[in-house]
Design brief:
By secondary structure, the chain is of the alpha+beta class. The protein has three domains: about 120 residues, Outer membrane lipoprotein wza domain like (Outer membrane lipoprotein wza fold like, Roll); about 70 residues, wza like fold, CATH 3.30.1950.10; about 90 residues, Outer membrane lipoprotein wza fold like (Roll), CATH 3.10.560.10. Helices cover about 20% and strands about 25% of the residues. The N terminus is likely disordered.
Length: about 325
């Protein structure tokens, strides 16, 4: 599956998740930070020792040299190669994969040639280096900028967990063409194809190590929907509707789910339109529902995508019905 095709789904992003599910996830996850969001923490979940944010390509930072406005700079964007340009220093200055404190210390050492005791402060103004997106059958799909290492289960908590349509599988689409930090080393993009990781939702919730990996910049996580198979009831029934075929459903059961047939319906001329397996062609099955109801014929088990059509009353029936209504209508008296 191509990365862009799946990414397009993210641009287009009902079961209400029980409060207890969110509470359990929140209580069992470690503290996490994304732009404008926080969660409670416990020491149960183990992540990398250094949880401080490491500056990456695309981030915008401020470099403040205390009591020296000439050397101070704000709004410096980190290049795709992970470097920045600083006043009074020749060439590119490496910034990627350093924490704010580490970068400040290195800049201070360089500025010692100009200042006796420089004090430098570095702060990230905009976090742009670690975009991740969660799509599919979750409560609140969306995009995030990670500000520290985060596992899949934590990100699942951020989107309020799976929705009612969720199946049993999570996919991680990993784009190797995005630079990322591995500790203090900037891993540059490769020419290899996209990587697709498939994990079990149940295993993720159990914190299985393989099913709960650390999320990488550019990852798109998709919660797959359950395989819903349906048939459709239309025509002369009280409520035309799709019929869920998760469990086996017969024709008479489906019609009962639709509220039954309307009086006068042509039960002997029911049609089932069914797709021929392996093709785009359809075949029509004629069914005498009257005989099935009288147990003179066997009921029919519906298949996915069947369309059941119950013909409406004949014109003669409607004519007789109207005639009967008119005969029963009271004759208005004149004054």
């Amino acid at each position: 599956m191509k990365f862009k095709a799946i990414y397009d789904e993210a641009v287009n992003g009902k079961f209400i998740l029980p409060t207890i599910f969110v509470l359990i996830l929140s209580l069992t996850l470690g503290s996490h930070f994304v732009r404008g969001q926080q969660a409670s923490s416990t020491p149960e979940i183990k992540i990398e020792k250094n949880e401080n944010y490491r500056i990456g390509p695309g981030d915008v930072i401020d470099v403040i040299v205390v009591k020296n406005e000439m050397l101070s700079q704000v709004g410096i964007q980190v290049s795709n190669q992970g470097s920045i340009q600083l006043k009074m220093l020749d060439g590119d200055f490496p910034a990627a994969c350093l924490t704010e404190r580490e970068l400040a210390d290195q800049i201070r050492e360089k500025y010692k040639k100009y200042l006796l005791q420089p004090y430098v402060n570095v702060a990230v103004r905009e976090f742009n280096a670690n975009p991740v997106t969660f799509i599919g059958a979750v409560q609140k799909p969306g995009s995030f900028q990670l500000q520290r290492p985060m596992r899949l289960l934590e990100l699942l908590a951020l989107v309020n967990g799976p929705s009612a349509a969720a199946g049993e599988t999570l996919q991680i689409i990993r784009n190797p063409n995005i630079a990322r930090c591995e500790q203090k080393t900037l891993v540059t993009p490769t020419e290899s194809g996209d990587e697709l990781l498939t994990v079990s939702l149940a295993k993720t919730l159990e914190r299985d190590e393989k099913a709960n990996p650390f999320i990488q910049p550019g990852d798109i996580i998709r919660m797959l929907e359950a395989d819903l198979t349906q048939a459709y009831i239309i025509g002369s029934v009280k409520s035309a509707m799709p019929i869920n075929l998760k469990e086996p459903v017969t024709l008479t059961q489906a019609i009962a789910m639709a509220g039954g047939t309307i009086p006068g319906s042509q039960l002997e001329k029911v049609k089932i339109t069914r797709q021929v397996t392996g093709t785009l062609e359809n075949t029509t099955i004629a069914v005498n529902l009257k005989e099935i109801n009288e147990r003179k014929a066997s009921d029919i088990l519906l298949q996915p995508n069947d369309v059941v059509e119950v013909p409406g009353p004949k014109k003669s029936f409607l004519k007789d019905l109207l005639k009967g209504l008119l005969q029963r209508a009271p004759i208005p008296l004149g004054f």
